[in-house]
Task: structure prediction
Amino acid sequence: MSKQKIIVTGGAGYIGSHTVVELIEAGYEPIIVDNYSNADRGIIVQIEKITGKTVQHYELDCNDLAAFRKVFEAEKNVLGSIHFAAAKAVGESVANPLKYYHNNLQSLVNLLQLQLEFGLEYLVFSSSCTVYGQPEKLPVTENSPIQKANSPYGNTKQICEEIIEDTVTSKAKLKAASLRYFNPIGAHPSAMIGELPFGVPNNLVPFITQTAAGLRESLTIFGHDYDTVDGTCVRDYIHVVDLAKAHVRALDWLQSQEQNSLHEAFNLGMGKGYTVLEIVQTFEKVNDLKLNYRLGDRRPGDVVKIYGNVDKASHILKWQTKLGIEEALKDAWRWEERLKGIELVK
Ligand code: UFG
Result:
């Protein structure tokens, strides 16, 4: 039997590339669609080295409907898609909201339009715990109230989930899962793919690894007087490989469902909160090094404390996290060290 093809938009990005590896290992045939606006072309070669398989890939912007349609015309019998392609910097979205509304919403609308036109029944959507804002009750479940988004980026994730919900409600033949990620960290244990921020990283772990590597002078911990165990913010982190595997589980689960139309949301995290200081100290411990850091001012817009209840993914998708923050922080550091030796195109 030929392998089942899955279109993976943003498949050269951080979570996308790890998911492509897991898809191949599970026997699927991923087809990457990426415009490399926030990814390196060299990642494709790395994926091929890890898996020993060649990967079909198209360079285009999902907002370009005509170009995107050509992929659907060229690739026959595609089963479904996983949609990662989106802009994701919270601060940039506040400064340039129209870029986010245009990019993140239009690409999903195009994808859905093409899926319905070409009869692709399955969609796994890359959502975020940002849809919960600062929850009143912790841990958050999928039924916790969706709060007003605190950034245009967060709003696009909420609106995208609504677009999918409305499409399903219209009785279109579509089975969809929105995966609400908590904070993905770490890298593939081979250290051949990982997070590749362009410019100064916004996120904690790449900032830590770049500081340890001497690329940044010092890490600033944003806020140390919050109402938490040590005064720093609490997040639910998840190893990117565990997260990638959840996409495969979601795809398998969607195929086992009999109804024509459905949309379910799933939290994906470790189900545990760690403070920023705990992450820093664990990084130092597992990698046996000292990090240059200082306690600084709060970052505007930060949620103080969030972690998820992940029982729904565990019961329905039969998915569990296997890797902890120790492995994630070791893998992140191994990737940072390997980066020096990898030839990247961009
Ligand atoms: N942090 C620092 N110093 C840094 C960077 C981050 O102290 O240099 C702290 C932040 O203040 C926060 C924690 O580390 O307390 C995690 O910050 P990240 O920027 O890594 O992640 P966020 O939780 O802010 O953002 C993540 C995703 C977003 C998503 C958001 C929802 O990256 O895509 O969660 O809350 F929108």
